[in-house]
Amino acid sequence: MKDLLRTQDLSRDDVELLLDTAAQFAENPLRSRTALSNKSVAIYMTKPSTRTRLSSETAVAHLGGTPIFIRGDELQLGRGETIADTARIISGYCSALIIRTFAQSDVNELGANATIPVINALTDDDHPTQLLADWLTIRENFGKDITGRKFVYLGDGNNMSHAWLIMGAIMGAHVVAATPTGKWAPNPEVVATAQKIAAQSGGKIEVTDDPEAASKDASVLYTDVWMSMGDSENDRAEKVLALSPFAVTENLIALSNDDSIFMHCLPAHRGEEVAASVIDGPRSVIWREAYHRRTTIQSLLFHLINGDLKGAKH
User: Fold this and answer.
1) I want to staple 60 with a disulfide (CB 3.0 to 4.6 A). Which of 23, 41, 178, 246 is the partner?
2) pTM, whole model, 2 decimals?
């Protein structure tokens, strides 16, 4: 496995290896401080970023490498150079490429033409690096045995809901996406892919428009902002109205398990997708979750560059 372009590229064994190593990096960030000695990693972002940028640059530095941050308007791509040519050029200078952008097809084309590992650090369709951080946080709270537990995403059927369903299926978990029906529901093709993976892993995939039924006896309640980067402001009023029943409130928390946790990929808008009392309350693990963006990207770089990941068979 050369690249991580989609969440579904990972096998369960790959994820377990990545999480094991990330847990070690959480204990000792410099345990592999020469893995990228005298090497550089390009970090190319056409979308603004806080956690992904900081975690990526820190991860490279902790492995002994030099991060090279590139904004979307700083390459010749903006003047018509092709993605394929750009991929070949970056491959000649760097040992890996981390990219955060809009179109999944751009990331796929970079992966097809680069000779170095390409890591999808968010597209409009998927967010695999976030899900690795999420599952390490889940494992820290519940252990590896997730039998009988339900993991629930509430809100917009966006890239985060897609990644949530796919990763849950890979891990053999019972995962639920509670979203409005219609244009803010998850992509049916992604749901079908998750169900296919779950059929092999022993997982269970559910999509519902009932946030209370979804939250009942849940171990995790997870949400994301309602207006994502690139969303039209013309849709705001309609979208907020549709998503309001899916806000994570104290009422939904009360329906969940006694040991449940609240998760959010951040940034958060208190009073919209989550109540302030929830995100700042005792069930919230958002800061540890955000911390693991670094540990998991560090693990991902380490294992991709070493050629340790096998990729999915599904």
Assistant:
1) 41
2) 0.97
